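Narrative summary of target 7.
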Amino acid sequence: MYEDFARVYDEFMTTIPYTQWADYAETLWKHYKIGYEKDQKEKPSLVLDLACGTGSLTVELAKRGYDIIGADSSMDMLNCARDKMASEGVLDKILL
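Modeled conformation, tokenized:
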């Protein structure tokens, strides 16, 4: 769907507060104890980001120390995400 639109999409989405979305995801994980062992306070060790698009949220979570698998049906979106990962220095935290 976004093959010819990946870079424009990425520019268009720059106003989205991805740090706040990552905060919200972490709040939900803690509240519902997703990825947490009984009586432990460790965060989930692996996160799957389906329809990761250009990787903005994926990169934000990786910067917080999560290991991420990002999946998207658009190779152009994934290429954009890979470029973003490289520029943010999180290539070792994400598998696309």
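Residues 6-95 form a domain with the Rossmann fold fold (CATH 3.40.50.150).
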